[in-house]
Amino acid sequence: MDIKNVNNACSAGASQGSTGVSCSGGPTGGLYAFDGPAAAVLDNRGAVVRWTGTAEDLTGFRAEDVCGRPVQELVADLPDDLRRATEMPASGRVRLWHQCGDTIDVTFRTTKVMGSREVLVLAAPTRHVADHEQGAALLRALSAQDRVTIAVYDTNLTTVQTNATPGTLDDRPVQPGARLSDVLCAEDAENLEAVLRQVLETGAPVVRRNQQVSWRHDPARRHALSLSAFRLEDTRGRPTGVAALYIDNADQLRARRHLDLAREVAERVGESLDVVRTAQDLADVLAPAFGDLAAVDLAHSVFDGDEPSKQLGGGDMRNAALAPATGVWPAGIKRGESIPPLPDHPLLLSFLHGKPVVFGLDDFIAMVSDPQLVEYLVPRGAHSVLVAPLHARGLTLGAITAWRCGRSDPFTEDEADLMKQIASRGALAIDNARRYTREHRAAVALQQSLLPPATTDTPAAETAGLYLPADSGTGSSGDWYDAIALPSLRLALVAGDVVGHGMPASATMGRLRAAIQTLADLELEPDELLSRLADLIQRLAAEAPSGAGDIVGGTCLYAVYDPVTRRCTMASAGHPPPVLLRPDGTAEVVAISPGPPLALGGMPYETTVIDVEPGSVLALYTDGLVERGDRDVGQGLPRLAEALAAHCRPDRALDETGRALLADLADQAPRDDAALLLARTRAIPAADTANWEIPADPTAASTAREWITRQLTMWGLDGLLFTTEIIVSELVTNAIRYGRPPMDLRLIRHHVLVCEVTDSSSTQPRLRRARTTDEGGRGLFLVSQLGGRWGCRHGQNGKTIWSEQAILQDECRSNEGAVDQAVGMKWSR
């Protein structure tokens, strides 16, 4: 039976089983078990003389079926060139018959057997040969890559084969038989072997695992590798080793670090509107992520919010930030110190044009050309420096300097480009902080200029006022305080808070303070004054631009202390109540009935009257002092009372007490302004006041003059007798003529002599010009000329006309000539 008949029989359905051979799927769909190339030996006539097991596995024919037969019988569709050939070709491609009737496309190679005329033929399925050739080509291509290292390890993780050559792993060839510990540091080798051993044991591949390793000959430098590993198996699925690909991941990791650095700069730098804080955030981002050390230097004027000069040099800058804070910096680089000027150098021209400059240590030394200055400026161990200008809106604000030390890589041009982007963003953040500093400083300066003197000393009380601006980036909030001296030795105390922030709030505060001073001169009751102030706020809101009317408003507390009666009258327009510290050291929050804030209006305000002992301290404040992130007004008021009792002592100055209160109560970075006014009250002794009830009798003026004479003589004020008699005579006469009982005359002695006449009439007196023929109408003119000041205030039960005279003996003079000048003026009702 020849081979062709065997094929036909197989095609007819006969089964000629063969170990390791299966046939299915038709002529082109067969799947044949194959392990290595098939081998056969032919004699000089082309007959098969030896047939190997691999040849039987490939074709399904046993040796006894083919030996002695021409090899052409195994070939299906023998090409004409091979049919006419007189000897076996060196290589080629043919289709062989399989025992089951299929054909197999094989690629063969031949070689003569030494010492005989026989020919050895090696054949393998063309598909396998193509796969092998492609795999070999791929392996050659991978092996030729500079940044890809291929290594094959046996089951003991010993190197079997690798393409590692100088310039890849260790700058020395890696020989077969080496282990990872021969190339890498012990710890890194142990970590990698653990990964490869896991792949060998589980068969689960590792793909693109990032590893940081150090070579044994250079343990200080770390290299980034991406490891991919998979298990090698034989035909029976048994593990034979591990193949590993090491890809140099430095560029990818560097690009990722650059992106992370740029993102961190965008997230962290610019959160604060403080110039120094922004500079420190920028330095903290750069070190140690970008350089081992980083410094930010700014022009002197930038710290104050001003623009730097056009030509910025080293001597014009001082350090704003250093990172890390624990870094070892040279003597010439200290936080807050000026930067010494550097000599001119051509490379610095690019810096002046906004471009970063990279120096090696030698270049920097050559540029400085002064060994002492180099030692003064260069950190220990530094080998590379990158300087980038902070350039924003056409201004060079300063510079960033980054140093690399030790075994770190020098700065590259790519990193210089990255630093340029970082510096640009950092410069904008610093310039925003600079511009805010300027505007905030202007707003605070305006606010401070609109406030009264910090301390006052009047017969009624000594006062101390303090103002703490906000640190929230919103500018001043329009908080204010005031202490206004009133007639009859009284004192008005004011604390207020305007809605809004910045310049508009400061301007509104200034208008309200001026309005309160004007209304205070009218000697209105606190509730009446706040009502008129609320009317003013409503007019201001009506005048505001469209959409801005709702931001005009505020709160206010107005109190008047009388040192004669030792009473304090107060009213509140939505403002927190004052705190009273009594001489015995007890502090309490005054119970008042606050009215609506000033912007609302339309509702009355209620007056509260309290008795105040001499030596007591009244504390007026704004809500920024008692409100903070962890407490509201209800929690802050008891805290204020406790702090006032703890810090306020009779022997301690009020301004010192105020500073202690602010330090104790205010936030470290307050989000709202805080104003505080402290007033330590005094009292006029009873011996310095005198009262006389005026009878409803036309002769009362004469009796009043006699009473005045006795009282002033007893006080030793003989020099004021003449003028006081005239003033009292005029005031008493008009009270009898135009007023209604009860009437009262009161004298108060201090640094001035106050004469007050009170009656039950609410008619307002006024000056008018008296004609030549008028018999009267000159009394008020006499009062105004003879006294220092005069005025009229209204109370719930009438009015009081008062006049003041300075008690200075050398100024007491006869005012008889002044009486003759009272011509043409008339006192009228």
Structure commentary:
With 829 residues, the protein is of the alpha+beta class. The chain is 32% helix and 28% strand. It has 21 helices and 34 strands. A 6-stranded antiparallel β-sheet has the order 2-1-6-5-4-3. The chain has a 6-stranded antiparallel β-sheet with strand order 17-18-27-26-23-24, with helices on one face. A hairpin with a 2-residue loop joins strand 9 and strand 10. The longest helix has 38 residues. The chain is rod-shaped, with a radius of gyration of 52 Å.
Characterize the overall form.
rod-shaped
How does the helix and strand content classify structurally? alpha+beta
Terminal CA distance reads 156 Å
Poorly predicted spans? 1-34, 166-170, 772-776, 810-829
- Number-wise, the strands total 34
Portion in helices: 25-40%
Largest sheet: spatial strand order: 2-1-6-5-4-3
Beta-strand proportion: 25-35%
**Rg to the nearest angstrom?**
52 Å
Number of helices: 21
The description of the largest β-sheet is: 6 strands, antiparallel
Mean pLDDT: 81
Please write out the topology.
Blueprint (H helix, E strand, L loop, with lengths): L2 H10 L25 E5 L5 E4 L1 H7 L3 H4 L8 E2 L3 H4 L7 E7 L5 E10 L6 E7 H18 L4 E6 L5 E4 L23 H17 L3 E10 L2 E16 L5 E10 L1 H19 L6 H12 L6 E7 H4 L13 E7 L22 H7 L4 E4 H8 L2 H7 L4 E11 L2 E11 L7 H38 L4 E3 L3 E8 L10 E7 L5 E8 L3 H20 L4 H18 L10 E9 L4 E7 L5 E3 L5 E3 L18 E4 L5 E5 L11 H15 L6 H12 L8 E8 L7 E6 L5 H16 L5 H18 L4 E7 L2 E8 L6 E4 L9 H8 L2 E7 L2 E9 L9 H5 L4 E4 L1
Antiparallel strand pairs: 1-2, 1-6, 3-4, 4-5, 5-6, 7-8, 7-11, 9-10, 10-11, 12-13, 12-16, 14-15, 15-16, 17-18, 18-27, 19-20, 20-21, 21-22, 22-25, 23-24, 23-26, 26-27, 28-29, 29-30, 30-33, 31-34, 32-33
